[in-house]
Amino acid sequence: MPAEFEEHKKTWMIWPERPDVWRDNAIHAQHAYVTVAEIIAEFEPVTMCASKTQWEKARAMLPRYIRVVEMSSNDAWMRDQGPTFVVNKQGEVCGVDWKFNAWGGIYSPWDQDELIAWKVLEIEGVNRYGGPMVLEGGSIEVDGEGTLITTEECLLNSNRNPDLTKQNIERNLSEHLGVEKIIWLPRGVYNDTSGHIDNLCRFVQPGVLVLTWTDDKSDPQYEISNEAYNQLIREKDAKGRPFVLVKIPQPEPLFITKEEVAGLTITKNTAPRIAGDRLPASYVNFFIVDNGVLVPTFDDPQDPIALQTLQKLLPHRRVVQVYSREILLGGGNIHCITLQQPFGK
Questions:
Q1: Is residue 107 assigned to a domain?
Q2: Neighbours of 56 (CB within 10 A)
Q3: From CA 97, how far away is CA 81, in angstroms rounded?
Q4: What is the C-alpha separation between 69 and 311, in angstroms, rounded?
Q5: Using omega within 30 degrees of 0 as the cis cutoff, is the peptide bond preceding 249 cis?
Q6: Which of 56, 89, 239, 345 sits at a 20 to 30 Å CA gap from 260?
Q7: How many angstroms separate the CA atoms of 199 and 80, rounded?
Q8: What is the pLDDT of residues 19-49, one digit of tens each?
Q9: Which residues pair with 319 in a beta bridge?
Q10: Does 62 fall in a domain?
Q11: Which of 279, 217, 206, 282 is CA-nearest to residue 251?
C-alpha cells in the first residue's frame, strides 16, 4: 500500500445527502464538499460519486472539470467505504475491497456502501481482491515502506471482527497490504466513535509522524495522546528507524449545538446526535494531495499553528486551510471524505 504522500492519479469522493446525518437536507455539507473538491482539483483530478436522485444537483453545483458519476450509497465517507489501493511488484495498481458494516452498525442499511469499492474498481478497470474482514480505510495509516499504524479501539472492537484474533487481523493486513511492521496504539481521538488512526496520528514522510496533542491534563484527550506518544517514542518502523514525533495542538473543544441537532431528520436507523456532545475535532485529519495539503480549520486560535507546523514539515507542498465544521458535524473530516488513487510504477 503506497503512502498518501506518494503521487496520485486522482481523488474519489461521495456526494452527501442523508438528512439524518447532514442537517437541513445536507445543503451545508454539500457546499462544504464542493469547496473540498474544488481545492483538490487545483492539484489533481477529482471524481465525485452521486446517487441518481442527486446526480443533477451535484453536477450543477460542481465545476465542469470535476467528473461526476452516478453511484448509489448509504452515506458519504469514501475513505472508509471505498477500496484500499495497492501496487504490486510489477507496478500494477489493484484494489482491496474490504467488508463494510457501517462502523459497527451505527446506521442501517449499508448494502449500497458495501458495493462502492467494487464499483470504483470496476470503473477504473483494475483488479479487485476481496478483503477477508471488516475494515475502514481511516483505521489504517501506512508509510509506504512496510509500516502500518492502527488502533486497538477500532480493529479489535467486537462490533467489527468478533471472530478474529489480533494475530488473524495482523496476518490479513500483512497479506493484503504488503506491510511488515504493525503498530497498535490503544485509542483514537476522544469521542471519535470510530477510534480511527487518521484523526490521531499520521505520517508526513517515512519515519516522521504528527500526533494530535493537548497540554491540558484535565482534558480526556491528554491521556490518549500521552499514551500514544510514550509508546511511539519507543517504537521503530519496518526499516528499523526510530520515529520523529511532531505534536500538533488540538483546537479548543467543540460541541454540537441545539440548532445543529434541530436541523437533522431523526430516524431509528441512525445513532442519535445530542446537543452538547463533544465533536472529535483534529487538525491531523488533513489530506495530502500532489503538491498540496488540505488542513481542516475551525476558526480557532490554534488554526495558524497547525498550518505553520504542517507547512514546515511539507515545505514543497502548498498548505490550504478549509473551514470544516460542517463535515465534522457528520462525524469525520477532510481525510474521511476523500480517497486517493495512486499511479502505478
A1: yes
A2: 11
A3: 9
A4: 34
A5: no
A6: 56
A7: 13
A8: 999 999 999 999 999 999 999 999 999 999 9
A9: 293
A10: yes
A11: 282
Query: Quick one: pLDDT at residue 345?
Result: 75
User: Could you tell me the mean pLDDT of each successive run of 10 residues in the chain, 345 residues long?
Assistant: 98 97 97 98 98 98 98 98 96 97 94 98 97 98 98 97 97 98 98 95 98 98 98 98 98 97 88 92 98 98 98 98 98 98 89
SS3 of residue 46 by DSSP: strand
Q: For residues 188 and 199, is the Cβ–Cβ distance under 8 A?
A: yes
pLDDT for the residue numbered 344: 85
134: β partners: 99
Looking up cell 499553528 gives: 305
Q: Which of 121, 127, 128, 170 is nearest to 148 (CA)?
A: 170
CB 48 within 8 A of CB 11: no
Overall size of the chain counted in residues:
345
- Cell readout for 243 is 520515529
Structurally, the chain folds into a number of domains equal to 1
| Residue 205 counted as domain residue | yes
How far is it, in rounded angstroms, from Cα 308 to Cα 183? Answer: 28
CA-based nearest residue to 18, from 26, 29, 10, 27:
26
Residues with catalytic function: 336
> What sign for the dihedral angle of Cα 199, 317, 243, 11?
positive
Q: Can you give the residue range of the structural domain that contains 335?
A: 8-342
CATH number at 244 reads 3.75.10.10
Report d(CA 287, CA 265) in Å as an integer. Answer: 30
Q: For residue 146, which amino acid is it?
A: G
| DSSP per-residue codes, 241-292 | PBPEEEEEEPPSPEE--HHHHHTS---TTBPPP-TTPEE---TT--EEETTE
Determine, yes or no, domain membership for 332: yes
